[in-house]
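Session log. Operator J.P. requested a structure for one protein chain; no other inputs attached. Running the standard single-chain path with token output.
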Amino acid sequence: MSGPAPHEPDIDPVTGYGTTGHEWNGIRELNTPFPRIVVAALVLTFAYSVVTWVLLPAWPVGRDYTRGLLGLDQQVVATERYRRLTEERADWTRPFASGDFPALAADSELMAHAMPAAARLFADNCAACHGSDGTGGPGFPSLADGTWLWDGAPEAIAETLRVGINSPHPDTRFGQMPAFGRDGMLQREDIAAVTDHVLALSSGQADPASAGAAIFADNCASCHGDDGAGGLGIGAPSLADDHWIYGGSRDAILTTLRDGRQGVMPSWEGRLDDAEINMLALYVAALSAAASTGGGQ
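Structure written below.
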């Protein structure tokens, strides 16, 4: 006795593929084969993964990792590339390590080659605080004018770069504005009088007979000079121009006198070599020279 006749497959007349027999609101599900191109892509991907795992660094093993048969190491590659770059630069950077600034500045061909590199050094290491054009900002002095907390000669700038200001370096430069109000050295009315005198100094209208002038002479002139021009090589800025580190408004000057200031300049010794520090010093000195001759901003 024969069994029931086998079920005839339901063939889609458009594609020619059979269906699964499922239907949703007149839509039938085709029983199509998996695309061969997808299968091939999966096989190739798996094969590539296996080859990569064998040849290249791939799997973590505790605190280490598998090296791969090729032994590639990106850290080694980067270090080698940096070494080759340093060797290529050595021919023209070596003279800067001497620190003979007059001779370096007089070599126009060398300076033309070095200053673009110095500009890159400035952008990478200094611009975050002093601005891309060196004009500074709140809390950071301008390097593009003729006023310096310490001497603006390249030798002095290089020393500042090397040891920093108020930095952990053992030879750091020190500079601090006392907190005349917070520490009780001056009364509130005296601070107000000095503030008015400092504002008058910056505008060129100071009255030497004022009460503020007398307080200034007793408490401020030893660092900032009798006329407030600064530039004594001890980190005291000029108060007789319109360049301000922490702001030149009355409120800002009151805050400075009351609470004091102590900025920090990092030491770049150990992070930059001698040639790079000296290149930067010449670049910064050029910023100041350009400004003083009308070529800066």
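Operator note: Residues 36-55 form the longest helix (20 residues).
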